[in-house]
Design goal:
two-stranded antiparallel sheet, 160 residues, mainly alpha, 57% helix, 11 helices
Amino acid sequence: MSANNIEGWEKRSLEHQKQYKQFLQRADKSKVLKILPDLNDEAFAKIDCLQCGNCCKNYSPRFKTTDIKRISKHLKMKEGAFIETYLHLDPDGDYVAKSAPCPFLGADNYCSIYEERPGDCARYPYTNEDVLLKRPQLTQKNSTVCPIVHYVLEKLITVK
C-alpha cells in the first residue's frame, strides 16, 4: 500500500462521517450499484490488505454453521472443540472469535485459513455489493476500520 493511499486516511474518515451519513441516506441506489464494482476493483488495486489487517486485528466475523463445519473439518477438529477453542456467542447470538486479533491472523497479516475463511471475511468490506447502502451504519463503521471502504466512499461522495 503506497503511502499516499493510506497516510492519514483514518483521520479523514473520521472527519467525513457526517458527509458519508448524508450520502448513504440519499444515494441513488441504482447509480451507486452500477459504479460500485469498478470503484471496488480500483480500491483493491491501490490498497494492499496485507499492509493493514485492521479488520482481522479489531473485529470478528460471524462464524455461521456452514463456516464452523468447513473450518473445523479443515483443521481436523470436532465442531464442538473448534467452537470451545476459538468462539463464543455474542449478544446477538452469533458465534464470533473469542479474541482479537483473529486467532487465524498471522504476524504477516496472512490468514492461516484463508481458503476456508468465514463467508463474512470473504465478502468484507462489502464495497462491491448493496450491503454498502443497505447497512449505512455498518458502512460508516467500516470506513473507520478499512481504507478500502474509506477510498470507495470518498470516490462516491464526489460523483455527480
